[in-house]
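writing this on my phone so excuse typos. first protein, seq and then structure
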Amino acid sequence: MAPRYPTYQRSARLSASITTPPNVDFAGLREAAKGGQQISQAADRVVSFAAKEIETQSKFRGAQDAAANPTGTLEQFQDSGPSNAYERAAYDAAVKISSADIEVKARRDIANSLMEWEQSKGDPTQLQARLASISAGYSDAIAQLDPVSGARLNGILSSAGSSAFLSYSETHLKEEQKRLAAGWNSASSSYQQEIEIAARNGMDIGPTLAAAQATANNLGVAPATVTSSVEKLRLAGERARVRGEFDRAADKQQYINDFMADVGDRTGPARGLFEADIKTLASEMDATLSGARSAAKSTITAVNGATRDFVGAMTSGNRVKAANIAELNSRAEATGDLAAIAAANNAEIVFQATNPMHGANKFTQARAVENAFSFVRNANADTIGVARDILSAAEAIQRQTVTALETDQVSYLNNNGQQLRSIDPADIEAAAVGDPMLSGVGSILAERRTRIDNFAAQNAVDPIYFNKDESRAFGVFLENTTPAQALIFLEGLQNGFGDKASVVLGQIDNGEGNFWADAGAVYQASRNNKFFVDVFNGREYLAEKGDAPLNAADKETRTEITSSLTSVMGGGDLTARMQNVAGFAYTSRLAGGAVEDKDGSLWRRTLQEAMGATYKDDKRLLGGVFDMDGQNVILDPSMSIVDTEYVEDNVNMMSAETLAALVGEDAAGRVSKTDLANIGFLGTNRANQVYLTNAMGARIGSRPVYLTELRNMLQRQGVPRITLGEIGGYGGR
């Protein structure tokens, strides 16, 4: 509720009397005037002038005093009105001044009230009531003093209040119109969304349009605005209807044709639309259809590209997953393009024909390649393309298999779904403890040997136990290890791969050919730790110094010794490799022992050790090259010199039955008693193997005889034997 404004009221009774002008005595003049008419008339004029002058002066003084203290002046007359000219002038002046002052105060209250309502956006009717209260309150205060002045002030203040009210009403109306417009805009957007969804799905939008119109009216929206807004909603609905019909059309081009054919009548798809809407929608549908065609073309292009990629992968020998082929066919079917579908189907045919080749043995693959050749030979114009792809894929797979069989069997199996656990040097070292071939059937080394042995057997090739990365890792390990660690590594290989250990060593890649294979083979044959350490250290010495010590036997001496011992090997690469290993050990011994080897005895011993010999002190006990009846023979590293001499000395005591067991019945049947009494030896390039010869020096039979077997048979035959312990106290092999 608007505050009550105080009226302008008298606040106190007058405490002092009003000062009045002094009285003037005119008795003498009147008496004098009786003397004559002329004097009388003059006196009247004087009196009249004096009275007027006095009244004028009183009015001036009264107005002057009232201006100085209007409030005090009015307080003097609160019980009685003015009685003379002075009082009337003072009263009138005080009323006018007070009226002007009240008008100023009233106008200030009017302005403050307008500001308050503008800030609070209050109710206009409440503002009107307050402005009327201000006008009445202030004008009533003056009306009590002077009704005329009060009426005049009331008119002035009422006019000012009306102006303020009208100003605020106009502003308030504009704000209200904005509020209502915002409300309708929000409602209109919601209605449009609802209408477009309904129309797009083929539903009647009439009820929603009616509801929108009712809402606009309730919000006080101008009738013209309501009409235009509802029309806009209707047009939005018609446009949405067309878009929905187009989206659902099975033949979109036909729908566009029907839509444009209805432009004249506008009773079909184009109903309820203006020409501008028709043009816009036609362009939009054309663009959509063009985009769809472009997208479809791109999809077909992508599918064809994927088909070519898969076929290319297969014809390059690579394995493709069945799930990828299935996905390719699904994508091709989705395009609806017959050519793309046919190409994808051909890719599946290639897959079905060649996928079983991956991981199969080389014989199965050979048959598959032959079948592919037959397919090409019998193909017609429709099938020749896929037939050639099958042949290309089959040949590529076969080539990969052949390469893998020769280089990396482990990777081949891994790439064909037969995952093998990776082996590192730590696995080899761990196998040096115990015998995992016997105690750990599921060990990683046992698994590797079994899987690769089976694969190699299926393909009739030699096994390759490590892939290239593993082989390089082993080589790096051995190149950066100590002799003790290398021995542990070799022992682990022996335990893990048994009789295949030497083969495994030959597959280690250290960038230096067959060094580790050769050095390891000597160790595994003789278990000569000291010799292996010497080989290791000598190799390190030459890598650092470049040349062997100067105390070595001369080249001619070493050549003669080498030739005499290695001639049985037939020369070639194997002989060179053996000399290389011996050369490392020889260098280490020369450097470490500071001995002079002028006669080459140290070189002879070292070379013998490289060929499997074992020495105690300076006496050869086992293995190496032995001169049996003028023939150099490579002994088994376990074959003692005593046993060899025993065989050499007692071979002429061999029975016909023993000979038949060694060389076969047919060969033995052609040997005379003289031949049997004069059995000789002919060396081979293999350790522990010799050919037996007759009295004429001719070879008996075609198969070699194992010296260890000959020894054992002579012993079983009853020929006396002297043991190593009897001659040297050596209890080893």
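second protein below, same order as before
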Amino acid sequence: MAELILFQPKAELDAAQNLRGFIDSCRTELTVFGVDLPFDENVWDITDSINLKGFGNNRHRLVFSNLETVNENSPSPMSEPFLSFAKAYFRYMQGYKPINGTGPRLAALRALEAALRESGDANPVKSDIHIVNRAAQMIVEKYTASAAYRVGGQLEMLSEFLCDNKLITIPVRWRNFIKRPGDAVRVGKEFDERRNDKMPTQAALDALPEIFLRAVEPIDVIVSSVAAMLCASPDRISEVMSLPLDCEFKQLNKKTGVEAYGLRWWPAKGADPMIKWVVPSMASVVQEAIAKIRKTTDESRRIAKWYENHPNEIYLVKECEHLRGQELLNMQELTDILGLADKGSARAWCANKFLGVNDLVLFADVEKEILAMLPSGFPIMDKVTGCKYSEALFVVRKNELGSYRGTNNCVIESISTNQINSALGGRVEHGFQSVFTRFGYVEPDGSNINITTHQFRHYLNTLAQAGGLSQIDIAKWSGRKDIKQNAAYDHVTPGQMIRKIRDAIGDENLMFGPLAELGKKTLIPRDEFARLLVPTAHTTELGYCIHDYTMSPCQIHMDCINCSELICIKGDAEKERRLRQQFDEAQVLMQQAEQASKEQYFGSDRWLDHHKATVERLSELLSIMDNPNVPDGAVIQLSPPKTSAQSISMPKKLNKPAKTITNIKQEIGLKNSEGFN
């Protein structure tokens, strides 16, 4: 384990001296990222020091570039002395609070450096509340809301570090004011856009099952099978890519005698290892998907096993085994060994490796180059679980998933998230074919289908939210440690999702685990609401209000029964009880209003009309509730009332003086009521 030295500032030293001491100690004394870390270089290769899933064989590098040029091919470095501080801080914090996702921490450093440089001096000791606020503003301007929130959290940590270690002249206690993006919006353009961005399109969901059945080429088999697995449980793609070969788990349900099917998972963000049960309706699909992946990747595991047992010898296909030990290879023989398209490709490979003379190449040189191409850390693919390449589900021969390069018969690689997302349409605009374009599927408007693996996670979480699965169960099902994160994945619209979740679940009698209760927990059949074609609905004491508050506020506050936008559902016992209670109260009030009208109380005729209308509507509504021909779950919406509180006639002319509130209280028995002051 890398050695960690806690930096202790000396009180008698000023901020500048403390800064120099901190940088020097991190440069010379720490071993985080390795003892041979090239501290003074502006690009660090930290692939072997962190465990990033889903990156395949791609190297992970820290680039200490400034904020303005971060996305350029030749980015400019941060300015000194902030550059040296940034390197020291990153190395120190990786030992103190290690992270795998380095982006937000590096982004916070870039923003603070940019704010300091804008003020004229890129020295971290000059940081003050105004500089940090300016850095936060730059973060908000550059990143999406969710990314800005995460970077803002790192900026808060950075400012706290500067203050606690006396690395700034004026102490700064800055708190992240960048709010986490809200997820409660359910109506309007904002919700529609957010939901469309987070969810897979219907065209994609319709096309993928057909591609899954028709796929033959390795790239199509792998991608469609991964999509099938992601449709079965809300998994992160990095978790899928890390599955071992023996990931399947079966257990007999002793109560039903039915065999439950699940997968062994190692969640990506710190949750405990677990078995995720697959709903019965999807179990056969997932089994078929894993079988297809196994068949496609079997050769790759054989290659990996060869190198485990023969670390210094090149793997050769059966047809080329007779070439082993041969001193020289011609271009045709090299073509056969590597699996290249033709001898021209073999010559190009030799030229790239600086090998070969007169179309001949030494076997030993080829062997040396091939062995050097094995993945970093081989034979271990996953440092956390210890899973080897020979035991991994998602391992392929190099370039096997590419469409423009020949498959290398001698070298293996793990599949990266980018490869899957590219095949799902992520780089179509750059000329890369997706599985959808290869099979001729497009969106209804003719545009290319483009989805990401993470959209499936949002999709299934939304289905679970719509079906009423508890927040704890959703978090467990999704492999989260914090249930608060559920909200970011909830994109439910009334009626639309409930039908899909029920179809996905299948026979509820065959359920296992938390999903078994999904269908039972939906008290109100919300799919009925979909038929109303209303943009929104919220719960009231008596049922549901479908008023669109984005257009106007409520005009008859708390008088729901006299509103045509009240929706009631037969079979909701609690709300039906409240309706009957309100009916009884309305009858009493109507009788009192009738008596008051006879005695010519001021305004009593208006209240009599109102209470009569209320009693009539409640009576009409309850008669439908009591009608045995109306099934439970039926949606009841009364026609607009003939009269309402807004259209009551003016009071009649009085024949005697109006009575006071005190008189009214005494006569209707409300003298001591808390409702009057």
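The longest helix spans residues 280-309. thats all i got for now
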